[in-house]
């Protein structure tokens, strides 16, 4: 089969900034292992933290948003596969891909379901208990439309796979479950007595991380009262002024900025405190915590679909009093801490899948062998590709014409 792969990125991958960055590099490594010729294109600006994709034999191309120059670019490239990095990119470019290269297999990498995260965020802001009725939003319509328009969508969470099939009746033939890849790595084990303090880590451009830090700030005085020598150290890429304003060293609450090496950073600490109030998908920080051998305290949402219903390596708590109680007890109890740290290692070993990605590649091969047959079975997708439903196409053309004038 032809193996020219175009990846259209929302941003250039930054593996030291977010889990989405190293997730993208995992996909690139998978495609490389299968002999794909890869081009990565994005309309975003690069930063000093953008990964040099040319070191992975990936061609880098800067493209324009709402500009017909992309049409000529993709015609010349003539890819066999196109992967859209999140549904917003599918909205902006899929109609151009379908128009210029109708044979190309279109893949949507959802990262996580944005409409699930938004619904939980709205419930949190309003002080409501979340329920599935809250999922039915305009954002859900957009994201589900992108899934239907695509030949195959990558889903990172078992919970989200079940939700799409059971709540929204999405045909499993257009979904592919692909969690984070976990590979065996020898790690130095740091003992209980050689660690100190609490920590949290997360990209501040991601709203759930910012809200988690605010939540930790609220409960920290109660923990500090019982552990007066302990400190809370907050790491994350792109901290804004409002984040730095929370820095209060005298109260043992420190904003540390970016962690260039998340696992090495986490190894210094005794507890990862992450009472995430809302979100979706899988949380990369908990995977890093497994490698670092650091027990964690998570919310139910944070722990969702992470470790296949295995006992959490630490505690899961949502109520403030319980979070404080578990944080203090786990910090002081060496036996409980060591038991949780040992579970981290056991969970890590159980998540290693030597066949990771093979089912996904097989699905791509199956679709490429008979794309017309595959697309006929996705009738809703066919309907959405009819002209009266391509609002994103006409909006893009209107913007391009407006910019030209």
Q: What's the N-to-C terminus distance?
A: 43 Å
Roughly how many Å is the radius of gyration? 22 Å
Strand order of the largest sheet: 3-2-1-4-5-6-7
Number of strands: 13
Ranges where pLDDT stays below 50 over 5 or more residues in a row are none
Mean pLDDT: 93
CATH top level label of the largest domain: Alpha Beta
CATH homology superfamily of the largest domain? Glycogen Phosphorylase B
* Helix vs. strand class: alpha/beta
Q: Please identify, by name, the CATH architecture of the largest domain.
A: 3-Layer(aba) Sandwich
CATH topology of the largest domain: Rossmann fold
How many structural domains in the coordinates? Answer: 2
User: Outline, from the CA principal axes?
Assistant: globular
| Count of helix runs | 17
Percent range for β-strand residues: 5-15%
Element string (H = helix, E = strand): EHEEHEHEHHEHEEHEHEHEHEHEHHHHHH
Largest sheet: 7 strands, parallel
Helix amount, in percent?
40-55%
